[in-house]
Amino acid sequence: MRRVAILGLALLALPAWALDYRSVAEATALYDAPSQKAKPLHVIARGTPVEQVVAVEGWVKVRDQKGELAWIEKRLLSDKRMVIVRAQGNNGAQVRAQADDKAALVFEAVQDVVLELVEPAAAGWAKVKHRDGQQGFVKAAQVWGL
Length: 146
Prior knowledge:
Elements: H1 2-13, E1 20-24, E2 28-31, E3 40-44, E4 49-56, E5 59-63, E6 69-73, E7 77-78, E8 82-85, E9 93-96, E10 105-109, E11 114-122, E12 125-129, E13 135-139, E14 143-144
Antiparallel strand pairs: 1-4, 1-7, 2-3, 4-5, 5-6, 8-11, 8-14, 9-10, 11-12, 12-13
């Protein structure tokens, strides 16, 4: 019985492994360390989704869709959820009227197009909106940032 209690306490101490996504509020530089005096790596566009890895004193270490890690000032991140198309090829991501492969095609988005997440993914689909106002459902596997 004591082993079960110890195991239960150990499991409670484990960190939550849920992914925490944000989007970039405005175009800005990403750095190799949490300081404006650090080496700038590159500029990231407004709206780009990033995964928050760790936060330290006003800075957040983020991972982009390519898996690259960098630092950004926390104030430059938004809670607004965006996703980025990762599907490749001629068709890109197919956004459909319903969460069904046979539903009418609303539009197609090519690789690296950023879409607003309207509703979280459910049953392998997410409701998204293009900046021109069109919206529909995309397969979760065709986008990054969920």
